[in-house]
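Quiz preparation item.
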């Protein structure tokens, strides 16, 4: 996306202001009780996020804030190659963080440059945190209903292309959760903002002794960063 010089200066200035703001006040009421102890831990770990990643997350927070202030829905699509692991974790954690911080008007989505299935290891990792995931369809690419809130509707998690029906077609932020998708998808159709937030693929540990530890590590990292991002919106 090409900014005119004065708009770019305004954008950078706003990002710097976000960096000076204090974290948003939090409320646990809208989040499942089983997840709350985990959230209490990751929200004390924001200092573990490298400065360069904080900047990317603040850019997304600015996008969300600007949409809300304009009376629009802030649509965020998390994209990886197969839409099976990292993009689902990011989508679910971000929607949970929005509920936790009381940020209305946020809709999160995920998709891939290819469609496969939500990996069962991702499902299990989320269940270990306290999310409730129910396979509602069965089959090779089941649709999981993800319960994260006591009041909000469940999310539908399954593998799909990033521009599939049901996902935003324009006016959304594309967050690239893997370097391969970022490289192989130079143009994300319809997006107004594209931000790289690459994560190491936990798939590298599949069927190895450290498999569970690696999935739990990635789940915690993504949760920590998505909560940091949403905390900036209401700063």
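Solution:
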């Amino acid at each position: 996306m090409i900014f005119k010089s004065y708009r770019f200066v305004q954008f950078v200035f706003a990002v710097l202001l976000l960096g000076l703001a204090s974290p948003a006040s939090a409320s646990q009421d809208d989040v499942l009780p089983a997840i709350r102890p985990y959230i209490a831990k990751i929200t004390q770990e924001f200092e573990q996020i490298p400065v360069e990643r904080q900047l990317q997350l603040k850019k997304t927070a600015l996008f969300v804030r600007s949409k809300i202030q304009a009376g629009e829905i802030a649509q965020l699509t998390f994209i990886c190659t197969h839409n099976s692991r990292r993009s689902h974790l990011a989508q679910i954690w971000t929607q949970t963080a929005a509920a936790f911080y009381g940020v209305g008007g946020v809709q999160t989505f995920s998709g891939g440059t290819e469609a496969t299935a939500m990996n069962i290891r991702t499902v299990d990792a989320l269940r270990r945190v306290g999310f409730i995931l129910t396979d509602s369809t069965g089959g090779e690419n089941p649709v999981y209903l993800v319960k994260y809130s006591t009041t909000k509707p469940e999310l539908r998690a399954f593998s799909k292309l990033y521009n599939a029906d049901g996902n935003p077609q324009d006016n959304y932020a594309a967050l690239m959760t893997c370097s391969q998708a970022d490289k192989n998808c130079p143009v994300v159709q319809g997006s107004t903002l594209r931000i790289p937030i690459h994560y190491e693929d936990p798939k590298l540990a599949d069927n190895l002794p450290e498999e569970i530890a690696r999935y739990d590590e990635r789940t915690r990292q993504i949760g920590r960063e998505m909560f940091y991002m949403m905390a900036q919106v209401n700063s």
